[in-house]
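Dear colleague,

Thank you for sharing your sequence with our group. We've completed the structure prediction you requested, and as agreed, I am returning the results in plain text so they can be pasted directly into your records. Please verify that the sequence below matches your submission; if there's any discrepancy, let me know and we will rerun it promptly.
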Amino acid sequence: MKEKVLFLYEFVNPIKIKRQVLKNQFLALAIGLVYLWFGGLKFFDHLSPAEDLAKNTMDVITMGLVPSNLSIILLAIWETTIGILLVLNIFRKPVVLSALLHMCCTFLPFFIFPNQSFSGSPIVFTLLGQYIFKNIIIVAALLTLYKNTIFTE
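Please find the predicted structure tokens below.
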């Protein structure tokens, strides 16, 4: 009986792993498309709703040393590169780490522009604050993707 259970486990376990790999690929594709889309918009003036916020944040981070028209292009390149690599499913671990670093930067306006992020109370977001806070979903997905990438490689 024990041999039958062991055989069944050996048969079912690869199926579970394959399902998890497919889930990871779908998650990477979804996140990659979001990065590709939002990053692509930043290549064109005034198409991205986050353009001014991104330029202002980059200006503070770089202490004004990088011109805003250059910083937005560098950000667009970073985001679209993350997107392309996730969609193509290559270099996943370093790309996920890069995306997590990017996501940390997206939360900076909470600290450097609190008047634009919160409406009176620190628990009441402005529309901009909501736009930033929803990134917590992407962070959770990236952490899941990173964790599952380690176990399925």
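Summary note from our side: The CA atoms of residues 103 and 135 lie 7 Å apart.

Kind regards,
the structure core
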